[in-house]
Design a protein that fits this description.
- With 385 residues, the chain is of the alpha+beta class.
- The protein is 55% helix and 17% strand.
- The strands form two sheets. A six-stranded mixed β-sheet has the order 8-7-6-10-5-9. The chain has a four-stranded mixed β-sheet with strand order 1-2-3-4, with no helix packed on it.
- Strand 7 and strand 8 form a beta hairpin.
- Helix 7 crosses helix 8 and helix 10 packs antiparallel against helix 11.
- The protein is extended.
- It starts with a helix and ends with a strand.
């Protein structure tokens, strides 16, 4: 199981016994528990002995947990970090992938407007870049925070920064990605150290009922070998330097990347169509089940009214005097009015069901005529150093 979950860092696998063990071996721990039950006779004595054992081991457990966590952060791949659920309150040295992206984009945009503390992942504004009377802070990324504004992607300030950065016009230049000084291990990038190539990023928008957006990344080496989308994304985990060297992308490499993006686009469109088809079937099925339930309920109500009217007619025939007959006739007339109303409701419900089906079909037809829009966000020449 350890090899399956953490297999991307083979050089650490051999060290796992030292990294993950050492609190107390199983046999010794079992013996300590056995001694408690052999020597203690009363419930209070047992509880006191277990409390003493817990206090004795508590510091050792804490030290080993911190040591193990640090070993994982230092030696395992960045991909493994993202699989681990590390409590932010216990480890301020690690951010999730999205938190890391938010932290870096915030540092970039607020570079001249805020004071940053990298250790606590916090910052304080000393100038409002938007001129909107934004709270100066402090802001902090993390959990269980009560002495600062919790800074996350959904925060209004973060949304303003993201919107501004997304609208930036980016030139075609060379970018040097610094792999050697990156604190986390990324095995998938190691084969590309010393190499260079080109990378393009596009935004594909598909409008059906709603607008869906997909970020498409395509990269090649200078020799024309495609690199995966995951590798392209991992490049942006690194610190980088943007040079002033304006680039011209060779047509042959541009064609390779465009073909890759077109294939990916076809897969996206196919997935959207399949999802829409399942959605349509699900909605039709819900309408059919709802209409069947509605019809069954109304039919039952009509049947009960018919039986009541039939019973009243029988009572009218058997009534011995006129006043009683008139009273029963009024009740019958009321029931027949209720039955007529129920029939009208039944008819109205049936028409409503058919209208909802027609509306759903109209929406599906609009989906079949979906609109697509592609926007190139940036194109760069990359070099991994």
């Amino acid at each position: 199981m350890f090899n399956i979950v953490f297999g991307s860092s083979d050089d650490v696998i051999g060290k796992k016994d030292n990294a993950l063990g050492g609190i107390e071996n199983g046999i010794g721990f079992e013996k300590r528990i056995a001694d408690i039950y052999q020597n203690c006779r009363k419930k209070d004595e047992i509880e006191q002995a277990f409390n003493a054992l817990q206090q004795e081991l508590e510091e050792s457990i804490k030290d080993n947990m911190e040591h193990t966590k640090q070993r994982l952060l230092e030696n395992f791949d960045e991909e493994v970090h993202e699989r681990l659920r590390i409590n932010q309150a216990d480890s301020n040295s690690y951010l999730t992938r999205y938190e890391s992206w938010l932290w870096h984009i915030t540092q970039y945009y607020l570079n001249e407007n805020a004071r940053f503390s990298t250790e606590a992942y916090s910052f304080t504004l000393h100038r409002d870049p938007f001129n909107e009377n934004i709270h100066p802070g402090p802001y902090r990324i993390g959990k269980n925070i009560d002495d600062a504004n919790i800074y996350r992607i959904s925060h209004p300030l973060a949304q303003r920064i993201i919107t501004k950065c997304k609208s930036a016009i980016l030139p075609q230049v060379e970018v040097l990605f610094d792999f050697s000084n990156h604190k986390a291990k990324i095995s998938s990038l190691e084969p590309f150290v010393g190499q260079s190539g080109y990378l393009t990023c596009s935004l594909l928008s598909i409008t059906t009922f709603d607008e869906e957006e997909y970020v498409q990344l395509a990269g090649v080496t200078e020799h024309g070998s495609l690199i995966s989308k995951d590798i392209c994304e991992r490049l942006f985990s690194l610190n980088a330097v943007v040079t002033e060297n304006f680039i011209i992308l060779p047509d042959s490499l541009l064609e390779i990347m465009n073909q890759y993006l077109n294939d990916e686009r076809s897969n996206i469109v196919t997935n959207v169509a399949e999802r829409n088809s399942k959605h349509y079937e699900s909605e039709i099925d819900k309408l059919d089940r709802w209409s069947e339930d509605k019809r069954s309920s109304l039919k039952l109500e009509l049947k009960e009214l018919d039986l009541s009217i039939k019973e009243l007619k029988k009572q009218i025939r058997m009534a011995l005097n006129l006043p009683e007959k008139l009273k029963l006739e009024k009740e019958r007339r009321t029931l027949e009015t209720n039955r007529d109303n129920a029939w009208r409701e039944y008819d109205h419900a049936a028409k409503k069901i058919e209208k909802e089906k027609d509306d759903l079909i109209d929406k599906v037809e609009k989906r079949l005529n979906q609109n697509e829009k592609k926007e190139v966000l940036f194109t760069i020449k990359w070099q991994l150093i």
